[in-house]
Amino acid sequence: MAKVVFFEEKCKGCYLCVTACPNKIIKVAEDRMNAKGFRPVEVTDQEKCIGCAMCATICPDCVIEVFR
Ligand code: SF4
Ligand code: SF4
What we know:
Helix content: 10-25%
Order of helices and strands: EHEEHE
Number of domains: 1
Strand order of the largest sheet: 1-4
Number of helices: 2
Shape: globular
Structural class: alpha+beta
Strand content: 15-25%
Largest sheet: 2 strands, antiparallel
Bound molecules: iron/sulfur cluster
Number of strands: 4
Distance between the termini: 7 Å
CATH class: Alpha Beta
Oligomer: single chain
CATH architecture: 2-Layer Sandwich
CATH topology: Alpha-Beta Plaits
């Protein structure tokens, strides 16, 4: 199973990763903000991650790292 890690303090809330994920398992974290004032993102169901790294590829700020 792949693992996705977010360096959420770098996230600028563009949410390109949310739309890029083919399995739609990335969502906006509703319970917190980072120091920049943006809501970061999180994976809702890690077991559904196929490790495609589309999220990491599209992120303009290198917030996401995918381990597989
Ligand atoms: S693409 Fe990167 S900067 Fe944009 S919301 Fe996702 S993690 Fe944050
Ligand atoms: S690696 Fe692929 S399946 Fe996993 S969260 Fe990123 S875009 Fe979605």
